[in-house]
Amino acid sequence: MTVKEYIEELNKAVHEDPSLLDKEVVYSADDEGNNFQRVCYTPTKGYFDGESFISDENLEEDDEYFDEETFNRVLCIN
To answer: I want to staple 55 with a disulfide (CB 3.0 to 4.6 A). Which of 9, 32, 42, 46 is the partner?
Structure first.
């Protein structure tokens, strides 16, 4: 899902029920929806390779672990 798609879905939900603006946000902690947690952090820009995330502020120019061809630019929501 892209950030644009995510925002569109949020806007639809709030348009249908404006009271959601004052509600907490939770996320599913696993793919099966067996565990839910509160969203605690603001969105963070960074890079993701399908398993590992490196935030912009933690990325160092000489970071051996980071490979621009492997990692994709993303927005982490928690």
So the answer is: 46
- Measured in degrees and rounded to the nearest 5, phi and psi for residue 39 equal -75, 125
Here the tokens at position 26 are 């939770």
- DSSP readout, 24-73? --EEESSTTS--EEE--S--EEEEE-SS-EEEGGG--TT-TT--TTT-EE
Q: Are 34 and 56 members of one domain?
A: no
| pLDDT digits 0-9 by tens, 9-50 | 999 999 999 999 999 999 998 888 889 999 999 999 998 988
15: containing domain: 1-39
Number of domains in the chain: 2
